[in-house]
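Could you join me in thinking about how sequence relates to backbone shape in a protein? Label the sequence line and the structure token line clearly, so we can match residues to local backbone shapes. Once you have written the record down, we can walk along the chain together.
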Amino acid sequence: MSVTELDACFVLHYRLYRETSLLVDLLSQQHGRVTVVARGARRKHCAFKGLLQPFTPLFATWVGRRELKTLRSVEAKQASYRLNGRALWCGLYVNEILLRLLQAGIAFPVLFQRYEETLVQLAGSHNDLDALERCLRLFERDLLQALGYGLQLTHVADTGLPIVADNYYYYEFEHGFREQQEHSFGKRNYRGSSLLALQQGCLDDAATLADVKRLLRSVFTLLLGNKPLKSKELFMQV
């Protein structure tokens, strides 16, 4: 069996496998999400030991024709991105939603780049809550786009009319935004100004950020289903 060419990747998650090995879920630049067996990775003198950690830029090769591959080589591309405190939780959250939503073996080169940009931003946020929130919301927006669920944030779904900053809209999954005729200010209503701000990536206003968080949380709840996120459970415990 042929070995893949060296591919840039990150560890999304790993778990113990048999006596000395690990099962590792990778996000790779050219092959998307890949699950590999790192044989002997828990042995004291294994070359992989210490490298297979989240948030470390890696180069790796693997072999195998089935969904479960065998890791052949791995080396650090550069030092790990240091995520601490709330930034660490944010990174774990991003890894978990990628693991849950990405289909194995489909490459998303642009999303891979956005993932690394997000790690850089998280590492530089120094537990600034607003900065961390903005970073997550924009990554969620781009993830939806990559998955084919991108939000049409500039025009109304049924009429094609431009979204107006002062109006209110509600969202129908896989259809888009429709204008709210009666401003009931329910949980499903979103300000037009918030939708336009998300499109532009300008989430500097606290009210806008809260509006966008409600919107994206509702969309990801539909995509992720009823199974709770372990990263959120961890955050609540902390």
